[in-house]
Write a structure and sequence with these properties.
The complex is a heterodimer of chains A (580) and B (123). Among the domains of chain A are: 118 residues, Beta-Lactamase, CATH 3.30.450.20; 87 residues, 2-Layer Sandwich (Beta-Lactamase), CATH 3.30.450.20; 158 residues, Heat Shock Protein 90 (2-Layer Sandwich). In chain A, 51% of the residues lie in helices and 18% in strands. Chain A is built from 15 helices and 16 strands. In chain A, strand 13 and strand 14 form a beta hairpin. Chain B has 123 residues and is of the alpha/beta class. The chains are: A alpha+beta (580), B alpha/beta (123). The interface between A and B is medium-sized, with 27 and 22 residues.
Chain lengths: 580, 123
């Protein structure tokens, strides 16, 4: 659960809680809505084509597979039909050949017929027995394993049919031998005009072999049935021989066809079928659709997995891009707002500076009047003995003079503040500048019990630099140090001569310190750890800019809990290089 | 010691002159640059206390003319408006010391009497 929360936090855009931002009133648009819209559009545009391709591809693959299967089924059915039809035809032709070639007398002769049967068995195979039947239905000769001579077939359907059409092939039946077999018969004529039939019994083993030799998959089935739907060869799934198949009988067609149906178990199946000419048989090839589409199903599964994979990747990418982009916009907006804020602040500060300078100037003259007059009163008191002895009066005058002096100091400081807007290079004594800056913090240090230690060695040379900029740099750094420190801490300001060209000033506090990853960023504009308290994040970046202007550099060294040291390196002589 | 006090603020120049008189100086107050230069031509002075901002002639111009005409006169600048740059200019021209108003009279006297040369509290 924690991990999930972490992930959410990582992906959660920075602008998510913009409502609480101090710049709320100036927000130009709803980042959250923009973000969601961006994700939605990008995601849709990326995923929709993928989805369309997936559907098209699958449907194409399905159609192709179905077509292929249709053709294969038709071909297989057609081939099998041809084989079976040929088998039957061949037997009939053999019988026809015998009728044409053999004397009726020889057919009537049991020995002759027996030798014909032997020849048939040898030459063609599949023959079990042969019988000769005259036109009144009486079997006048028989060669085979049973004693069937003298049997009368006149009333049997096949006899009449053969008599009318000339050839006949029967359904498979059990007959006397209790073995499935079929009858093939042809009609012949004798010179006296009477007719006879040559009848042969055929073993169906050959049939079964032909059907079972079709290369079919495990769940497929091939069999023969007659036109009433009785199975003529055993089937794997649709019943034993002579049973009725539980599939609809397809309509007659002279060609091999494929029909769709549903079997008893409720499985959709494709039936390849062919009516075998001159016989009551229908060849049927049954394939379960599920089996046929097995390849397609696995393809579909793979493609759907692929699709989901791509979708997830797309989602992550889209999410990252959108978050990154909106974060950038958000950041840019924040920067702009801060800049506006800063400009406002700067101009406000400048006006305050001008106002302060004006007030200071105007007050100085009246102060001088008070000063001189009070001074004169004091002078007069001292001259006149009666007042000189009165300590109360002198004390009052001294109080006035002291107050005037203090007011004078205040106006001088105000003028100094205003002066910072006019940069100029002049010789400066570092310890003076540092003391000046630190004096601003004397009171705060006293309240917060912070010790300030200034260490400027005697040999520090006079540097040529801009007074105002230096003041601002040190003010900013001391201010930062004060914000990092708690009561009882110590602030060290240490100056040192680095070489002939540079001096360094280190401002070291033993406050809270700066994390290492933040150290690189602290000089970046708008980087602030005090943003919630209204800091603009500009203090150190301005300081950095000022140090650069003075041809120096600034570095930071900090450890969490141990404190921070800012070191400013300044050229001793900036002469000839005007601040930008 | 004769001292000319130049300040457009009458209250200041009068009182300052009076206080100098009380301390044994001969001090004469004037209220603009023109009359200051006029007095300087006619009388002899050892020192001048000069305000920088005056209605007729700028204090720095007055200083220049004094230094041109009377290089030996010790001039002390006393200003309520000046900045460091003005003071620096004045010192370069030849003023002995520059003070921001208000200032202790003893400081001015010290500067005039030359006890503490080159006094400058501004820079």
């Amino acid at each position: 659960m924690m991990e999930f929360k972490d992930i959410v936090t990582r992906f959660k855009p920075k602008f998510w809680h913009t409502e609480t931002s101090p710049f709320n009133s100036q927000i130009l648009f709803n980042y959250r809505r923009f973000w969601l819209l961006s994700i939605f559009l990008r995601f849709t545009i990326s995923v929709a084509p993928m989805l369309i391709f997936l559907i098209m591809n699958l449907s194409l693959a399905r159609t192709a597979l179905q077509n292929e299967n249709y053709l294969r089924t038709v071909r297989l059915t057609s081939n099998a039909r041809r084989t079976i039809a040929y088998f039957l035809e061949e037997r009939l032709d053999a019988l026809k050949f015998i009728i044409q070639e053999t004397e009726f007398q020889r057919l009537k002769d049991p020995v002759g017929l027996f030798s014909i049967l032997q020849n048939l068995k040898m030459g063609f195979g599949g023959f079990v027995d042969v019988g000769l039947i005259n036109d009144s239905g009486l079997q006048i000769n028989y060669a085979g394993p049973f004693d069937l001579a003298g049997r009368n077939y006149r009333d049997q359907k096949w006899f009449r049919e053969c008599y009318e059409t000339g050839t006949y092939i029967s359904d498979v039946f059990l007959g006397y031998r209790r073995l499935p077999h079929l009858i093939a018969a042809v009609k012949g004529s004798i010179q006296d005009g009477s007719y006879y039939l040559l009848r042969a019994t055929l073993d169906i083993t050959k049939f079964t072999q032909i059907v079972s030799s079709l290369e079919l998959s495990e769940k497929s089935d091939a069999f023969l049935c007659n036109r009433e739907g009785l199975l003529q060869t055993p089937s794997k799934y649709y019943g034993g021989i002579f049973e009725r198949i539980d599939l609809p009988i397809p309509e007659y067609s002279p060609h091999s066809e494929v029909a769709e149906a549903i079997d008893r178990a409720g499985n959709p199946v494709s039936i390849g079928y062919a009516y075998i000419e001159k016989s009551p048989y229908i060849l049927m090839l049954v394939k379960r659709n599920q089996e046929i589409m097995k390849g397609w199903y696995s393809l579909r599964k793979e493609m759907i997995w692929l699709f989901w994979g791509c979708t997830v990747v797309t989602l992550i990418v889209v999410l990252s891009i959108s978050t990154f982009m909106v974060n950038k916009i958000y950041h840019a907006d924040q920067t702009r707002l801060s800049a506006m804020d800063r400009l406002e602040g700067t101009s406000r500060l400048a006006s305050i500076g001008r106002l302060a300078a004006g007030v200071a100037h105007e007050i100085n003259n009246p102060l001088a009047v008070i000063n001189e007059n009070a001074g004169l009163i004091k002078d007069l008191f001292i001259l006149k003995k009666e007042y000189k002895e009165d300590p109360q009066l002198l004390e009052l005058i001294d109080t006035i003079l002291e107050s005037v002096e203090r007011s004078g100091e205040i106006t001088r400081e105000l003028l100094g503040f205003a002066r910072h807007f006019e940069p100029k290079i002049q010789p400066l004594q570092l310890h003076k500048v540092i003391k000046e800056v630190v004096s601003f913090y004397k009171k705060e240090a006293l309240y917060r019990n912070i010790r300030i230690n200034i260490d400027v060695p005697e040999d520090i040379p006079v540097i040529h630099s801009d007074h105002g900029s230096l003041q601002q740099i040190f003010l900013s750094l001391v201010n930062n140090a004060f914000q990092a420190m708690k009561g009882g801490c110590q602030l060290d300001v240490i100056a040192a001569k680095q070489d002939e060209k540079y001096v360094t000033v280190s401002i070291r506090d033993n406050g809270c310190g700066i994390p290492e990853d933040e150290q690189k960023k602290i000089f970046e504009p708008f980087y602030s750890t005090k943003s919630t308290k209204g800091g603009t994040g500009l203090g150190l970046s301005i300081t950095y800019g000022l140090v650069q202007k003075l041809n120096g550099d600034i570095s930071v060294h900090s450890k969490i809990g141990e404190g921070t040291t800012f070191t400013v390196r300044l050229p001793i002589n900036l002469e000839g290089v005007t601040p930008k | 010691m004769r001292i000319l006090v130049v300040d457009d603020e009458k209250k200041i120049s009068d009182v300052l002159a009076h206080r100098l008189v009380l301390r044994g100086f001969v001090a004469i107050p004037v209220y603009d640059g023109t009359s200051a230069l006029f007095r300087l031509k006619r009388e002899t002075f050892d020192g001048v206390i000069l305000d920088l901002r005056m209605p007729d002639i700028d204090g720095i111009d007055v200083l220049k003319r004094i230094k041109e005409g009377f290089p030996d006169i010790r001039v002390v600048i006393l200003s309520g408006h000046a900045n460091d740059l003005d003071f620096k200019t004045c010192l370069e021209i030849g003023a002995i010391a520059c003070f921001h108003k208000p200032v202790n009279i003893l400081e001015i006297i010290k500067a005039l009497e030359g006890e503490q040369a080159q006094k400058n509290d501004g820079i």
